[in-house]
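Running co-folding for 5-amino-5-deoxy-1-O-phosphono-D-mannitol.
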Amino acid sequence: DKNGYEHYMLKEIHEQPTSIGDTFRGRISIDKTKIFLGGIIDVMPKLTQAKRIIIVACGTSWHAGTVGEYLFEEYARIPVEVEYASEFRYRNPIINQDDVVIAISQSGETADTLAAIKMAKEKGATIIGICNVVGSSIPRETHAGVYTHAGIEIGVASTKAFTSQVTVLTMMAFMIGRKRGNLYDDLYKKLIHELTLVPEKLEIILKSENYIKGIAEMYKDATNALYLGRGCLFPVALEGALKLKEISYIHAEGYPAAEMKHGPIALIDENMPVFVIATKDKSYEKIVSNIQEVKARSGRVIAIVTEGDETIKNMADHVIEVPDSHESIAPLLTVVPLQIISYHIAVMRGCNVDQPRNLAKSVTVE
Ligand code: M6R
């Protein structure tokens, strides 16, 4: 049931304030001072003492894992590697008993991810799952896990599952950071509080859908697009590009913003839309100069910015504002306008949004 929406994808985009809330509800104490993830309690000693965390996943789940890498290294201070499950399983990877492997999968059925954890388990690693479908194959192979509680996702293009995966990884990063003594009381409480504000901030972003649709209209005939971000917003750039490719069939690439000058800058001209995720954080000044580099070559800049940002407004062709937040929370906010743009561009191009060509909801073949 599409609940009055034209497509499942649009319904699922709009469900995100609720689905993210469902993901953290019951896992954050009422007074917002503690995080409790019951499903991984038994492996917490392994996790907090892990020498290394390896995240395995495919597609959008791999992008969520890459957000997790930034947050885990920042707050938990544990080295993280994010692996495409298909590459990891076939290259005789070095795994030992002090490693913790986290498999991320909406469906819990992705063949490569399942095979990767079976192999890592045989080699003695501790396996944790972050999955959406309860009782699916991956959770049955793991030692412990956290369900994302996003609710059933029908659109082939993953939206609410991604934000729930990122929510779980964010909670894990904060909780492990706290247990390892890296986060003091005040900061820990502030971070938890910031996470609980996400649903209401997303409601605000969703109210600007018509404005975002207007921007989509201007770029619907593009043949290429670039997406740029830095830090934990770089994987959001990758995710924005994937959303556009898979449902609108426009070629799109995501890049870390500073990598642009090592090649992709050659593509920029007045026909190239460049989506820049440029909210206020520690790399803000750097991303502002990346925007200048694009404008100097006549590229069209659509920037996702923190509300009230006048500097970028004066440089970019369009800005989409998101409410101010702590930088660790920005992936959850900034991905949503990118989902909305892709959705509307695909609809305007007459594409089958919920069932794009050549794609299946779960990839159970390798
Ligand atoms: O069910 P999974 O999370 O394991 O699926 C992984 C990918 O197949 C999936 O994220 C795919 O990239 C989506 N179509 C992205 O929207």
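Result summary
Residues 230 and 256 are 5 Å apart (CA to CA).
The chain has a mean pLDDT of 97.
Job closed.
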